[in-house]
Design brief:
- By secondary structure, the chain is an alpha+beta fold.
- The chain contains 6 helices and 7 strands, in the order E-H-H-E-E-H-E-E-E-H-E-H-H.
- About 40% of the residues lie in helices and about 25% in strands.
- It has a 5-stranded mixed beta sheet with strand order 2-3-1-4-7.
- A hairpin with a 2-residue loop joins strand 2 and strand 3.
- Helix 2 packs antiparallel against helix 3.
- The radius of gyration is 16 Å and the shape is globular.
- The two termini are about 25 Å apart.
Length: about 180
């Protein structure tokens, strides 16, 4: 299968968990995941799995369509995240940051079995790359969303997706410097 893998993670989740009550963390995480899933689903993606505070999603399809949908979902996720943080700040609650990595490529979907347990998931280089890109999203000033070269090549009008407003900034990083 070909498409885009989106990997999103709450930054410094362990630190947040240590500094706040389990109830506060659970409420934040449930609200966060609901908002992220909504942004993914409304842009044609499918959530593959939650890994603690992380979300893995898949946007199936070859070509620019799945790439455009995934970028729109990532931007919508960041907008939802900002809205949630604004609401939390107004209520005097802790805020948090997220990062998102996106990678276009071929993946394998299927069940992984260990005898007693079976889980349907998506594996492959694009998934690994998306996870690595999300980890790199901490390196710059404006790098909440990082996309792979293969995804970037499919988006000739990338600036329309990443810079919908004049006052929003972006930066392009050469990730080869980080590997």
């Amino acid at each position: 299968m070909t498409g885009v893998i989106l990997f999103s993670d709450v930054r410094s989740f362990t630190t947040l968990s240590e500094a706040n009550t389990p109830v506060a963390i659970s409420q934040m995480l449930n609200q966060h995941l609901r908002s992220m899933v909504e942004a993914i689903n409304s842009n044609g993606g499918r959530v593959d799995q939650f890994i603690g505070d992380a979300v893995v999603a898949f946007f199936p399809g070859e070509g620019a369509s799945s790439c455009t949908k995934s970028v729109k979902a990532a931007v919508a996720m960041m907008q939802q995240h900002r809205r949630l943080n604004d609401e939390r700040q107004q209520r005097g609650m802790f805020t948090y940051n997220i990062g998102i990595g996106l990678a276009y490529g071929t993946v394998i979907a299927g069940a992984l079995n260990s005898g007693n347990r079976s889980e349907f998931t998506i594996i492959g280089r694009a998934r690994s790359t998306a996870e690595q890109l999300e980890a790199q999203s901490k390196t710059g000033r404006h790098t909440a969303i990082i996309i792979s070269d293969s995804l970037f090549a499919m988006l000739p009008d990338w600036h329309q997706h990443f810079c919908p407003h004049e006052n929003e900034s972006h930066e392009i990083l050469d990730l080869k410097a980080f590997t």
